[in-house]
Amino acid sequence: MYTFSSRLKTFSFILMIVGVLGIGYSFFTAPKDINDVEAILADQHGHHGDAHAEAADHHEAKDAHVQTADHSEAAHAEASHDAHGHAADAHGADAHNDEHHAHLEHVLHQLQNKPWAAVYVAALFFMLIALGALAFYAIQNAASAGWSPVVFRVMEGISAYLIPGAIIVFVLLVLGVMGTHHLFIWMDDEVVAHDHLIQGKSGYLNGTFFLIRAVIFMGGWILYRQYARKNSLAQDEANDNSYYKKNFKASAAFLVFFIVSESIMSWDWIMSVDPHWFSTLFGWYVFASFVVSAVTVIAMVTLYLKSKGYLEYVNTSHIHDLAKFMFGFSVFWTYLWFSQFMLIWYADIPEEITYFITRINDYNLPFFGMVVMNFVFPVLILINTDFKRLSWIVVMAGIIILCGHYIDFFNMIMPATVGDQWFIGAGEIGAILFFMGLFIFVVFSSIAKAPLLAKRNPLIEESKHFHY
Amino acid sequence: MSNKVIHVLYNDDDILMDAVKQTRAAHHHIEEIYTPFPVHGLDKAMGLAPTRIAICSFLYGLVGLSIATAMLRYIMIVDWPQDIGGKPSFSFIQNMPAFVPVMFEMTVFFAAHLMVITFYMRSKLWPFKEAENPDVRTTDDHFLMEVSVHGDVDQMVSFFENTGAVEVKVIEKH
């Protein structure tokens, strides 16, 4: 039986407090109106700021136009260009001023989105890790895997975070539908009224249906999690294998539900921040990203508990198997990442390619850096059989993989919500720390509630003596 | 010096594994073991060094990747940089995504085939090679351990008869 060490508990509370301070700071410093944005932009552009400030005073409209175009996104620059054409008219100055105003408005929205997007990315990332651990657990159950039952309780513990994690994500979605934040542009009636593409999708992308889907998916996942956990604990005290059989059937049914709900979930919560863009393999891509993170977290929590002497029967062969899954799913993620990227890059259809153009132009380092972190590094490190058995190598590779997949989710959400105003600062790091603290607290509290060895699992003996 | 060997035959892999352990403990030198199928853990029991073929394969993969990269760069970028359907052929990196499928397949091709050829060469396997089978039963249901003779032959024969052998033969090797 594991007891939640008070040091780890204190550590998780410190993470949460520091995280809340970081999140609070980023909300507090987000600009309130256009004047704040003007000051921020003046600050960012240094000496350009002077000309920029003058633009606000209707002076030197033409000069300022160049400045404005400088820090506009591509579409906006085009709009400015049109305005420039009108500059010859008597109303030129006015028209330009409107453009400048619209640009400031645009940046204001991006900067106001920033703290929300930071919280949303971190909340989603940690919730999906719990969901990935649950899916992995269901696969192990349905496949009657002989090696993994000794780490079932670790997986169950990690999946416990699904309940608070899903509730937080759901609250964020509800706040979006209510209009508190503007991460999802299609939730804004004003925008939809002028956007035929979104209007065409509003049968699917509308607040009510969106929340109903979220409730069904989250409800289904949590239901399976609670049911499987209950049966797993009941099997410890049972005289026959009826609870094991129930779990087997429930796992198979859950996996069917999971793959459908996961795919739709990724369209709803991630792809719909870019409502003009679509990709068919997106659901698989998101799945690969969070399942590799989940396997990594399972390996890291197992190694932590093992190092504290709680997992008597876990040997290097179990770690080796988890590391193989980390390696394999990393390659799988890369395969899907590249398939999605290369197909769109090759065909170069304007309506699809904008997705990658914004990422390559504004997010160059995170976009390609994550490929190095999620593919090159794990492939070179975890390809070696001996390395896969060394705790410190698995932990080090795990940290890189987790950071890489956080950046992956960052790359999925941020370009559509904050655009080129992104930065990994107090808000982003604060959100990661807060959810990491909450994750550690919930997971280890849950692990402390049950014995770490599933006693009467029919495959437990095989798992105890598993040797590769 | 005589080059006598003892051929010890078994009809069960568990008995064989135990015999191998006893033989090693008694410091008899095992020349070779012939089995009809892979016996899990036999190499460890015999104390054989681990294979390095995976390291070879990795290096061959790097060779394949290098050849694919050099080939595509020379053909598509250096030699005749045509505009084919608007694909940018100004530098290698610009058109790299289109080359990745070839680079991947060449890596796998080299890693796989050269590793197999390495295996054949190191295990001395080729067509028309004369089979080195000391006893035809070892391809069907018998296990044969070949031990070099040193010291008292009779003592060794009685030792192997006690390890569960179904047959022990002393053979003069050429």
UniProtKB/TrEMBL annotation, chain A:
The keyword NAD does not apply. Keywords: Membrane, Transmembrane, Transmembrane helix. It comes from Flavobacterium alkalisoli. PANTHER family: PTHR43044, QUINOL:CYTOCHROME C OXIDOREDUCTASE QUINONE-BINDING SUBUNIT 2 (PTHR43044:SF1). This is Quinol:cytochrome C oxidoreductase. The keyword Transmembrane helix applies. Residues 48-93 are annotated as: Disordered. The chain crosses the membrane at residues 12-28, 117-139, 160-184, 204-224, 252-270, 282-305, 325-345, 365-383, 390-407, 422-447.
TrEMBL record, chain B:
InterPro entries: ActD. This is DUF3341 domain-containing protein. The chain crosses the membrane at residues 53-76, 96-120. Keywords: Membrane, Transmembrane, Transmembrane helix. Signal peptide: none annotated. It comes from Flavobacterium alkalisoli.
